[in-house]
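pinging the channel bc i need a second pair of eyes. not urgent but kinda urgent?? the chain im working w is below, pasted from the shared doc
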Amino acid sequence: MKKNFYIRSALSVILLMHSVVSIFSGDVNDFGRLYLDAIGFSPFGIYLAWAVKLIHLFSVFLIWSDRWVKVVSILNMFILTLGIYFLHWQNGWYVVGGGANGIEFNVLLICCFLQLFFTEYHSGKIQKRSS
């Protein structure tokens, strides 16, 4: 069994749903044009939105293949931190319940990526024993 199986599983479902659904619904284009461009990223908003969604999508495959896990973790933590700063901070802590659209979910995801980042992965190379 792979290390961090449950964290990998949860992150995979979340990243797939967050990317695939918004790609097929067209929300990624709206997010780029209507939100990112409006807050000062014009004319690059749509490209940034697509970069985020594609990073999320490819992250799933890289996490499960034990390739570039540290890089994937850093990229996603960076995206989630920017999401906190630009989208969620002004809404407080709670996603639901005590508020709406807050930072708690992003904080949890960042902690999951920190766990992946600090897990040791074997490169598959045979190590020589010293005599």
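so The radius of gyration is 17 Å. and The chain is about 70% helix and 0% strand. — does that match what u expected or am i reading it wrong
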